[in-house]
Design goal:
This protein has 297 residues and is mainly beta. The protein contains 5 helices and 16 strands. It has an 8-stranded mixed sheet, sandwiched between helices.
Length: 297
């Protein structure tokens, strides 16, 4: 019997923006993405998300040069940009890249605001990352992995900007938020306190200030990072819509029926990527975050 995590990999981050064309141009022109599919949100899709007001909204799925669909963008013309680092829910998308220093130079005068320049991480000199803020207020951690970083199972890039490998969540209670993910069999957690420079800078705190953090190891060389930021406020919720910025993260699982979760609607099969005809459903995690699960086969 396999002891591989039942949850994972983390597949796709869904961004909600008020101008789809602006966002697509940014990702295509500066992050080497291409539009794999574009259209309008169907009633079935909106029902899965618990967002009936988004029926007919424009959306697009983007893929990297390695054909990984790690971004889906949905246009909501009423959405205000998310406030980086200061709201609970999905706070950032960590994406593995080939050369973070070269990328930092290439993003000068781009739609991506450089928030923190490239720097080696405390956890390992083999991880070097920078943070940028995108058109919808989304935070991207653009990370170069130079070699193995045990005990974590994380990938090295196969293209200039490759794929999502760590969605980062902001919450008010690390331990409670982590339980949602550790309830999936064979998922490993690591808990520690560490400084989060980008967060500390956003609040004007001392850069060395430490916060409770958890990492959850998933399948497919992906993880979830859960940051407890006591000063963060709940993300504004709009009835029948998705929250602005990073609205949800999609993951693979073996079978939806294996998990006793409260879905927004009955699971359904959808033809567009990242589903590709597979069964999917959406729910809310303990930290208030939106989680979409897609059956592996």
């Amino acid at each position: 019997m396999s002891d591989s995590p039942v949850l994972g990999p983390a597949l796709t981050g869904t961004l909600v923006c008020n101008n789809l064309d602006t966002l697509l141009n940014a990702y295509v022109d500066y992050l080497s993405m291409s539009v794999l599919e574009a259209g309008e949100v169907s009633a079935q899709q909106a029902a899965i998300w618990g967002a009936p007001e988004l029926v007919g909204a424009r959306f697009a799925v983007l893929a990297s040069e390695t054909e990984v669909c790690w971004i889906r963008a949905v246009e909501d013309t009423t959405a205000a940009a998310a406030i980086p680092f200061k709201q609970q829910g999905w706070m950032s998308l960590e994406v593995v890249v080939e050369d973070v220093d070269t990328l930092a130079t290439e993003l000068v005068d781009s739609p991506f605001e450089l928030y923190r320049p490239p720097a080696d991480l405390d956890v390992s000199d083999d991880i070097r990352a920078m943070q940028v803020i995108g058109p919808a207020g989304e935070v991207l951690y653009l990370t170069q992995v130079k070699g193995p970083v045990p005990p974590f199972e994380i990938p090295m890039a196969k293209s200039r900007v490759d794929r999502l490998f760590i969605p980062v969540m902001c919450c008010g209670d690390r331990d409670a938020a982590t339980t949602f993910y550790t309830d999936f069999p064979h998922v490993k957690e690591y808990k520690f306190d560490t400084k989060i420079t980008s967060v500390n800078a956003a609040y004007g705190w001392e850069l060395e200030r430490k916060h409770p953090v958890a990492t959850v190891q998933l399948a497919g060389e992906t993880m979830i990072e859960i940051d407890q930021i006591d000063a963060a406020e709940p993300r504004p919720q709009t009835e029948g819509r998705l929250p602005a910025g990073i609205a949800m993260i999609s993951y693979e699982v073996d079978a939806l029926s294996d998990h006793s979760l409260v879905w927004f609607s009955e699971p359904a099969r959808i033809s567009s990527p990242p589903y590709n005809g597979r069964l999917a459903a959406c729910c809310r995690g303990v930290g208030g975050e939106l989680v979409e699960l897609i059956e592996r086969n």
